[in-house]
Amino acid sequence: MIFRPLRGTFRLLTLVGLGYLASRHLQRLVDEQARAAGNDVRQAGREDMRNPPKQWDKLDEELDQSFPASDPPANY
């Protein structure tokens, strides 16, 4: 039959899709638990800032990525 190989492909795509949905659901649960615990820490970069600055250069990015580390970037 022509459709026999498509069954395996359909099963694989179904499993991949379910895995993706499960990972998204798990990430939401982890994010909700972190917010409930008061660990609301944003990712580095201006994309996740509430009020991003209009001008943002490489040094600003490196400083933001290094926070709260004690060592500043080496190329300032």
Question: Any overview of this molecule?
Answer:
The protein is mostly helical and 76 residues long. It is built from 2 helices and no strands. It has helices at 4-36, 58-66. It is elongated. The mean pLDDT is 80.
Provide key terms for this protein.
76 residues; mainly alpha; 0% strand; ATP synthase subunit e, mitochondrial
Topology:
Blueprint: H1 4-36, H2 58-66
Biased composition (Basic and acidic residues): 43-58
Protein name: ATP synthase subunit e, mitochondrial
Region (Disordered): 37-76
Question: Short summary of the structure?
Answer:
With 76 residues, the chain is mainly α. It contains 2 helices and no strands. This is ATP synthase subunit e, mitochondrial.
- By DSSP, the count of extended strands is 0
Find the structural class using helix and strand composition.
mainly alpha
Please tell me how large the radius of gyration is: 21 Å
Determine the N-to-C terminus distance.
66 Å
Return the string of H and E elements.
HH
Helix content: 55-70%
Low-confidence stretches: none
